[in-house]
Amino acid sequence: MILRSTDGGQTFEPAAQGLQGERVLALALDPSKSRRLFAWAYTGGLFRSDDSATTWIGVDTDETLRRSTSGATRGALIVDPGDPLRVYLEGASILQFVNQ
Questions:
Q1: Is 67 left (phi over 0), alpha (psi -120 to 50) or beta?
Q2: How many CA atoms lie within 13 A of 70 on its CB side?
Q3: Which of 9, 20, 30, 46 could disulfide-pair with 64, CB 3.0 to 4.6 Å?
């Protein structure tokens, strides 16, 4: 489950509309677009939000989904600050996802 706060941490609300999978393995913020986030979900794949986690869309449910179900318990998810179209996912190995 992802929770978000829009009031500096005074209150929190669920922020997972459209997100699929059993649990979130990693989150990343796009440094060039403050409202864009990525989430890697166990048994779900890779998701993107362009509205500060209000809604999520699946952006890669092939390779990232396969890797999320092959023994993954956590991972690192990084948006390349030099090229924000590139998102790196680290589990047992590094996967590069090119964001459209």
A1: alpha
A2: 10
A3: 46
